[in-house]
Design a protein that fits this description.
Layout: H1 5-8, E1 13-14, E2 20-25, H2 39-45, E3 47-51, H3 69-84, E4 89-94, H4 96-111, E5 118-122, H5 140-150, H6 153-156, H7 160-179, E6 191-197, H8 205-209, E7 219-224, H9 235-241
Parallel strand pairs: 2-3, 2-4, 4-5, 5-6, 6-7
Antiparallel strand pairs: 1-3
Helix pairs in contact: 2-9, 3-4
Length: 257
């Protein structure tokens, strides 16, 4: 695994550097380009978007993927923590990326390092939870069918050759998420916001709400119209949630049910 902060964040979008930053952790098989749909919303919200690029994905396709979710989060923290000192920032993790973002935030707090003000955990089960059927062990055809039902194939296009190249990466990420059973179950002191799609067949709102037990600083749940991929259609509201203050968590943020 190659190291260096520029490798993890290949591009930025939105407001000029120096303001509030949002670091975005992609879903299984996804990369930094998956968050380009939030670029305009970031500019309007006055935040700078920093999408994370995992090894073995997109611009880092030639690298070996991380061998475990734990090592992936540790590498991100080791390389990017120096850039976070003295800054105001939030984490936004979607699906697989929610678990990576949570663990990275947990590591920062455990080391006494500057951490995110708010952690947005989107379309994901909390640690120790997973749907009854592991996806990573499915044969190619049923796995592709499952991904298509969640809208995942639309994120990469339906070309057979592209799918053939990406499927091992998707399967690897799913296996990391399924195998991850954290020994550290301490809740975060940061604000935690669970994001869910009302029609998400993979991580429904009830599952996302279970992140509340991992939130010591405050928890809110937002439910949006749509299925598993609802970020682009709700960019302004989601990025506004990154800047919630602690007092905003005295009452749970209203949901769109």
């Amino acid at each position: 695994m190659l190291r260096g902060s520029d490798l993890w964040t290949p591009w930025t979008a939105g407001a000029r550097r120096g303001g509030f930053a949002v670091y975005c952790f992609p879903w299984a098989g996804g990369g930094a380009s998956g968050f380009r749909g939030l670029a305009e919303a970031a500019l309007n919200a006055g935040v700078t978007l920093h999408p994370i690029e995992y090894p073995g994905h997109e611009s880092r396709f030639g690298e070996a993927p991380a061998p475990s979710l734990e090592l992936l989060a540790e590498a991100i923290v080791e390389d990017l923590a120096p850039t976070w000192a003295g800054t105001n920032f939030a984490f936004l993790g979607h699906s697989f990326g929610a678990k990576v973002a949570f663990r990275a935030a947990q590591l920062l707090e455990g080391k006494g390092l500057p951490g995110p003000k708010t952690v947005l955990l989107s379309a994901a089960f909390p640690p120790g939870s997973w749907p009854a059927e592991p996806l990573s062990i499915l044969a190619d055809a049923p796995l592709l069918q499952r991904l298509a039902s969640l809208g995942g194939l639309a994120r990469v296009g339906a070309e057979d050759e592209l799918l053939r190249l990406m499927l091992p990466t998707i399967r690897s990420d799913l296996a990391l998420a399924e195998a991850w059973t954290p020994s550290d179950r301490r809740p975060l002191r940061a604000n935690v916001v669970g994001l869910a799609g009302a029609a998400d067949a993979f991580a429904p709102p009830a599952a996302v709400r279970c992140w509340e037990k991992f939130a010591a600083g405050g928890f809110a749940l937002r439910v949006f119209e749509g299925g598993h991929f609802f970020l682009d259609a709700n960019g302004p509201e989601i990025l506004a949630l990154c800047r919630l203050e602690q007092e905003d968590f005295a009452r749970e943020t209203p949901s769109h049910e």
